[in-house]
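S2.1 Query sequence (NADH-dependent FMN reductase)
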Amino acid sequence: MAPRQVLTITVVNAGVSDPSSTRLLADRIAQKSIDALRDMGIAATVRSIDLGPLAVEIARSIVSGMPDSKVQDAIAQLAESEAIIAAAPVYKAGISGLFKSFADLIDNDLLIAKPVILAATGGSARHSMVVDDHLRPLFAFLRTIPMPTSLYAAPEDWGSADLGKRIARATGELAAVLRSGAGREIADGNWAGYQHTFGGNATRAERGIENVDFDTDLMRLATGGTAQPPSGVRADVR
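Output structure tokens follow.
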């Protein structure tokens, strides 16, 4: 009998205070995710990427255009994960610049079809829509599968039963998607149809000439040929 696969959930935490309410929310979500998956008979483990200690390296990577080794390690950890919990504090009615800067260093195809729980914390309930106004479009651009239920915690929410109910709903959605295997099936089935970054940090990025498909219309034109394949050869839709 094959050993049971243990899924990996990675928390990306952009909280910088100590103690951090953002980290507290992320930890609650992570534990509830483990519980929801266990109830379905699925084993999972959680790893964390705390962006605060990487702030200097992230800034240096943005300026140089080349991810620092520590940042590269964090990106590789994301690539190896089956699901993501993205948690950011809200500053000035928007997600933290630290979180956005880290996201700017991620290849567009690194997280294709990975399920993501979106979460944020702030000093006022007035900023609760930042999760859906800022985080959801960002992760949609990265072609992930954001869960329908987004999570936001203001100071008054910590003592409320409603926050626990919302966390349970979001983690239940995550567990259902992971159990279905839909994300992996989507990524595997459509990988060739997505636009990718050559030499990027995605797990299956093209890194050498042997990985390049020269039979696309664009590559045939670039090598002096025509957009149409030779007579009798069926052209795949790309």
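Residues 126 and 231 are 62 Å apart (CA to CA). The chain has eight helices and seven strands.
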